[in-house]
Each structure stands twice: as structure tokens, then as C-alpha cells.
Amino acid sequence: MCIRDSASPALPTGSRKVIPDLPVPLDRLAALEADLRLRVGLLRAGRLDWRNGEAVLALHGGRLLADPLAIDGAGGRIALRVAAEGTASPPSLDVSAHAPSVDLAALLPALGLPGGVSGMLDAETALSARGRTLREMAAGLNGSLGLALADGRVDISLLDAVAGDLRRLLLPNAPRNGSEAVRCLALRLQARDGVASAQAMLLETDIASVLGSGSVDLGQERLDLRLLPRARLGGIGLAIPVVVDGALAQPRLRADPQGAASAGAAILKELSNRRNDPGGTLGQTLNQALGQILGEGDSEADCAAQLRIARGGREGPVPAPAAPENRQGGVGDLLRGLLRR
Fold first, then answer.
1. Higher pLDDT pick, 327 / 199
2. What GO CC annotations are associated with the protein (predicted)?
């Protein structure tokens, strides 16, 4: 089996960056004083109706606190807290947000972002950074980001744009048009000093899944990810471990030298070690997940466990039971992807 690199060699030092070096002028807060309380009954913006808005803002001596910032819309309530110290050296910024039920099909077009995704997203973040530019802040970022979605849909064109190399490798004859069911999306990143490490990383559709671990160094803009894509067609499961590394601006995709079972075990161990897991939630699913990697069993517990981690330990929606597979030619598609025919 041979998996070719999807990109040329890594960029040399001084190459282009992905994170822009834009100024974040928090020091200008020192010149302002404000106390603001605002309530909004109905706000129509971006083709959406936003209701029950509330904002409380205080700015004194270069210190800003906006708490709460909250409004109902796009399927649920979105709440934020923002704190900044413009007189600190360097200035600091803390942002936390929670949106437990966001209707992506309504929100993305309203924000002027590409659509093609539907489902209810549970998102939460608590991030802090210091610096005078966006790049400086990214290099010292601390905190967490969690995204969880069950039973959504995604346009195949968007899926190809995000993960086209993996999809074409596993399923070279898969449809190129229409949409695909997303059984679950679970992602939780924990950042420390600019290095964001995965505590949960799983994308599962009706015909394939990708389990992952690793980290992204935002300061150096380097990737160090291990992915285990697995196709599920015609009752056959086959996993192909890959490594994604290199620069953010030019990532490389290559075969993981470990086999599927050992790569899968290493990924799950790394995910478990990188989170506080007093109840052993992830460890309890290890054997079942390895069975999935090798094409045995279903993925209910794996989705449920990863979604729980992505939500920071909270319970929430899990995927409906998978429909029976009734596809033809699955093995042939897999072999053609593996052999690059």
C-alpha cells in the first residue's frame, strides 16, 4: 500500500503565515470610560430575528468587562463574556462563550459564511491571550474550545474541500454531488502557551469516520496530527492511519508507519492522557473503539463518548442508530483507493 504526500516539502523558515500579524489595539482602552446597559426585544439582522438581547459593559482605567452579552437566535441562546486589560504589558484578553443549540443552516448564511452544513451545534469556549497583535496572542493562547454535533448533514462539495484527500483515498468512487449525513462531529482542543492539543476528535458520516489526536502549534504554525480514517461500506470496515504534519500554510499528508490497530490504540491513549478523565469514560470505550478500527462492532459508544468529552463532560444529543448498510461495490472502492487505481 502506498499513500503519496498531498503537498510539497515543508516551507522554509520565514515563509508565509496563516495567522495575520494584525494589531489588536487594546491599549487604547485606557483613553475610554463607559458604563452601558442594553436590552433588546427584537433585532432583525442577517435574515434572522434575534430576541431577548442583554448587554452589560463597564470600561474604567483601561479595564473592560462585558458580562453578560447574550441573545436568543439561530435556534438557541448565545452567551458571551469578554474581559480585557489594556494597561497590562502586554495587554490581555479573555473570552468565554456558550451556545448549546445553534442551528447551523440558519446561522452560517446569516453571517455571510458558506452554507452547506445543517444540524444543531453545541459550542463552548474559554480562551485567554496576551499580546499586541493577533499573531502574538495566538502564540500564547490558553484555554479550551469544544464543538459537538449529532445527526447533521454536510454538502459533499464542502466535505471534499475540507477533507478531499482522505475521502478520495478511501472512497474514490463515492458521489461528488449532493449531501452526506454526519452522525457526529466531536472536537475539543485544550490550548497551553499557544499549543492546542486534541482531547476529542471524531467525524463520522454514514460511510466513513475519522478519529484523530495530536496538536497544533499556533506560535510556530506547525501541525502534528495523527488521523485514523475508516470506511464502512457493504459491512466491511477498513482503516488507513495517516499523519498530517508540516506548516499550517502547507500541510503534508502521509502514511502512518504504524498499523491500523497500533495507530488507533496510540490515538486513544493520547486522547485519554491529555484530559482529566477521573471516571475513565474514554478508557471504557477503548476496546470497543479498537473493534471499530478493525471493522468490528458499531460506533454508538464511540460517538457518545467523544461528544461528551467535546461538551466538557456534559450530556447531550447522540446520533440516532445507524441505518443498515446496503451499498454495493464497497470492497472494490476501498481497494482502488488503497492501490491508487
1. 199
2. plasma membrane
